[in-house]
Design a protein that fits this description.
The structure holds two protein chains of two kinds. By secondary structure, chain A is of the alpha/beta class. In chain B, helix 2 runs antiparallel to helix 3 (about 100-110). The chains are: A alpha/beta, B alpha+beta. Bound molecules: flavin mononucleotide and iron/sulfur cluster.
Chain lengths: ~650, ~190
């Protein structure tokens, strides 16, 4: 392929790609993102290709089909996902064994295979097209929508959907200052956590004195359970590269870095291939698109610590030093990588840039709330029916996300809280589900946007346990440099651990709040600054649960093992032997026609008996905050069955 | 270098661009307590004892005086209810590790810190990093470093380097605000012989 040397070349290239595409040809797009791969997507692809061969489709003129391996469309829970174009038929949980039927029925006979369709659990209604599935219907997929439409390893696929036209427009029709203005006008805010206005940051970096400047993509994504940046980088790497190159032009940088977490091998692979292709085509390198602008990009694999996502720590790590935050100011925009002005943005922030250049600042402005514009990708997980990646407009309510996109809480359980913002985010209760999700509204209720983690919790969740869980993560992931973070989290975690063990004391909540304040206000970086959120938000909304643990030694959600016990109600036990056999601690005595009894000394409170006891008996009771009734005497244990 | 005018504890201070708030305060004789700060070393900003209240652009917050550069028109308060309360908690957290440290005890007295507020976990080290940074920045030997992170962070000598250098140097010993360093060194000496 020859270099693209001008916007006109690009347009010709695009037309050429499109002209080679046969509109009659069907395309089976199979997600081969990390999630679907883990569920066997590679075997599905192989089986489909084999079937096409076996049924001799390659030689046929009337039926033509391609298999395309694409990025992640987000519905990972139902993977492997595939979509058949042009009809946009969406099949979920596809197995290699389905390949024959897909080819013979759907591709050849044009018939939809019912059993592979999405079924709405509430209405039993089936959806044929991807866009009819409620999970997708209620989203606005400006950034991840293209994932299923293109092979991330193919630059042609990206150009076919209009890729690199924003770069051409920026480089050949606008000045760097014009681009900075445009991004400022769009009111785009950083998606990596703090929500700082991107245009303003670009302006700082642009105006910082110095010949050499850098741009960096933050793809560290250390939040456990979050994978929106991975999906973008893996599924549509060119969109990130295009945004980055436009940013470099605006700021005056000629070198860029993509800092990717080590645990994302496929993202590293795809973005590395994308860089090579972009270089070959002249979208990167010298004299890009004939504009005279030079820019190169390198990929750096991060060591995988959560704190390395913090921008100053990331830059240290990029320089080969220990990944520890340093004090700001000076900000990276003034003194960043190798002491040069550096602009660092999150993957998703960069991916928004081509959109803004192509569609205008007004386009982004038309979406979202007053101060938060555009869409945000969340990783929706936990106790919700449809888990996966969801991209929604800012301002959508939490209720919309959880119930309309997510399908609500499974198993008939009650919703309890939603935790947003990653490990140092906050827990939001039912009463605030109608707030419009944006940077400021989430902060008002004691949570944060963070990078977009969203964990739904049901009634079986203990909020003290939740706070403990996140602090445990943070005590390990804090770099340990500064006192308030290292020691404050350590002490808070100790108190929470004591409370969860029934060793809480009056005054513990006050002490937690006291420690939280110091950690929040005196820490060096935002890890410490936000670490108290899980504690403060759970105290704010679920204080009664703390009180129950501290005063009544009771865990209302029956989670804290030290505070609960299991007891078999002798009046209900039908001596069915199920729990007795299943108990891993062999703590249950009984036999045929012998009412079962738990030996409290042997019991480890694992809850197996509670789960396996048939619901028609419901003989196992959870007990917390009160004494366990005495076991019935041995002579009374023989079950007297009522004669029918 | 541009002149920068700011206020510290209600007094007007003329400082130079690039100076830290700590240096500006010292220049007019105002004392701000520090633990991890050392004139010969690069500012570190880790112990946070030097925290002060600063008002810039209408916003008041805590900043670490040893690393924060002076800004035009900023108003700094080196003592306030909030500052004192914060220093007290920080001292109490550190005293759980080094209850016998003389400088910590002196500060504890001033800020009413209770050395028994938190359960003792005597590691004797407060991770101020003076030894580590002195060895790296001044001596350029790197015989001692940090290992692990979070609550498990600790300092450790690198035996191969320490064995050939430390015995004749020991310049970091007097920097240590607890007596930990010496003990650690002696320990490793003992292990090596
Ligand atoms: C502990 C910690 C972890 C962070 N992790 C990430 C991360 O994984 N990805 C990211 O983009 N930003 C992360 N950030 C935010 C960055 O410091 C920085 O604000 C961001 O990269 C700026 O880009 P943005 O303006 O586009 O959001 C983290 C911050 C902290 C304090
Ligand atoms: S706040 Fe925590 S993570 Fe940040 S510098 Fe201090 S110890 Fe390290």
């Amino acid at each position: 392929m020859s270099r693209i040397n001008s916007p006109a070349d690009l347009e010709n290239f695009r037309k050429e790609i499109l002209s080679k595409k046969d509109p009659e040809k069907a395309c089976i797009a199979v997600c081969t993102g990390t999630g679907c791969l883990a569920l066997g997507a590679a075997n599905v692809v192989a089986a489909l290709k084999k079937e096409i061969n076996k049924q001799g489709l390659e030689a046929k003129v009337d039926i033509k089909v391609d298999v395309r391996e694409t990025g992640c469309p987000g519905f990972c829970e139902r993977g492997p996902v595939l979509v058949i174009y042009p009809e946009e038929i969406c099949y979920l949980q596809v197995q290699p064994g389905d390949a024959e039927e897909i080819i013979s029925e759907t591709i050849r006979a044009k018939k939809v295979i019912d059993r592979l369709l999405y079924v709405d659990p509430a209405t039993d209604k089936k959806s044929v097209r991807e866009s009819d599935i409620p999970f997708y219907k209620n989203q606005m997929r400006l950034l991840i929508g293209n994932n299923i439409k293109l092979d991330p390893k193919s630059i042609e696929d990206y150009v076919a959907v209009g890729g690199y036209s924003a770069l051409a427009k920026a480089l050949c029709q606008s000045t760097p200052e014009g681009i900075v203005e445009l991004v400022k006008e769009s009111k785009l805010r950083g998606r990596g956590g703090a929500g700082f206005p991107a245009g303003k940051k670009w302006e700082f970096a642009r105006n910082s004195p110095g010949e050499i400047k850098y741009v960096v993509v933050n793809a560290d994504e250390g939040d456990p359970g979050a994978f929106m940046d991975r999906a973008l980088l893996e599924g549509n790497p060119h969109s990130v590269l295009e945004g980055l190159t436009i940013g470099a032009y605006a700021i005056g940088a000629h070198e860029g870095y993509i800092y990717v977490r080590q645990e994302y091998p496929l993202a590293v692979e795809n973005v590395t291939i994308a860089i090579r292709r972009a270089e070959e085509h002249g979208f990167l390198g010298k004299n890009i698109l004939g504009s005279g602008f030079d820019f190169t990009v390198k990929v750096h694999r991060g060591a995988g610590a959560f704190v390395c996502g913090e921008e100053t720590a990331l830059l240290m790590s990029l320089e080969g030093k220990a990944g520890e935050p340093r004090a700001r100011p000076p900000y990276p925009a003034v003194k960043g990588l190798r002491d040069k002005p550096t602009n660092i943005n999150n993957v998703e922030t960069w991916a928004n840039v081509p959109l803004i250049v192509n569609k205008g600042a007004g386009f982004l402005n038309s979406i979202g709330t007053e101060k938060s514009k555009g869409t945000k990708i969340f990783s929706l997980v936990g106790k919700v029916k449809n888990t996966g990646l969801v991209e929604v407009p800012m301002g959508i309510t939490l209720r919309n996300i959880i119930y309309d996109v997510g399908g609500g809480v499974p198993g008939g359980k009650k919703f309890k809280a939603v935790q947003t913002g990653g490990p140092s985010g906050g827990c939001i209760p039912e009463e605030h589900l109608d707030i419009g999700v944006d940077f400021d509204e989430l902060a008002k209720v004691g949570a944060i946007m963070g990078s977009g983690g969203m964990i739904v919790m049901d009634e079986d969740t203990c909020m003290v346990d939740v706070a403990k869980y996140f602090l445990n993560f943070l005590t390990e992931e804090s770099c340990g440099k500064c006192t308030p973070c290292r020691e404050g989290i350590r002490q808070m975690l100790k108190i929470l651990t004591n409370i969860s063990r029934g060793q809480g004391k009056e005054g513990d909540i006050k002490l937690l709040e006291n420690l939280a304040e110091t950690t929040r206000d005196a820490s060096l970086c935002a890890l410490g600054g936000s670490a108290p959120n899980p504690v403060l938000s759970t105290i704010r909304y679920f204080r009664d649960e703390y009180d129950a643990h501290i005063r009544d030694k009771k865990c209302p959600a029956y989670v804290c093992k030290e505070l609960i016990a299991f007891y078999i109600d002798p009046a209900k036990c039908k001596a069915c032997m199920i729990c007795l056999r299943k108990c891993p601690a062999e703590a249950i005595t009984g036999g045929k026609n012998q009412i079962h009894v738990i030996d409290q000394d042997k019991c480890t409170n694992c809850g197996t008996c509670f789960e396996v006891c048939p619901s028609r008996f419901s003989a196992v009771r959870r007990i917390s905050g009160e004494p366990v009734p005495n076991a019935i005497p041995e002579e009374a244990r023989t079950l007297v069955r009522e004669s029918k | 270098m541009n002149e920068i005018i700011l206020q510290i504890d209600g007094r007007k201070v003329q400082a130079k661009e690039g100076m830290t708030v700590l240096q500006a305060a010292q220049s007019i004789g105002i004392n701000i307590p520090t633990l991890c700060h050392h004139e010969k070393l690069e500012s570190y900003g880790a112990c946070r004892i030097c925290i002060v209240e600063a008002e810039t652009g209408g916003r008041t917050r805590l900043i670490a005086a040893c690393v924060y550069p002076v800004e035009e028109n900023m108003a700094v308060r080196t003592r306030s209810e909030k500052v004192d309360k914060t220093r007290k908690v920080l001292l109490e957290e550190l005293l759980a590790h080094a209850p016998d440290s003389v400088p910590l005890q002196a500060l504890a007295q001033e800020y009413g810190a209770d050395k028994d507020r938190f359960e003792k976990e005597p590691s004797f080290c407060v991770l101020c990093g003076l030894c580590v940074r002195y060895c790296a920045e001044v001596k350029k030997i790197n015989a001692i470093g940090f290992s692990d992170r979070g609550a498990k962070r600790e300092i450790s000598f690198i035996p191969e380097i320490a064995s050939g250098n430390c015995w004749d140097c020991k310049e970091c010993f007097p920097l240590c605000p607890t007596s930990y360093l010496q003990a650690a060194y002696v320990l490793i000496e003992a292990l090596m012989r």
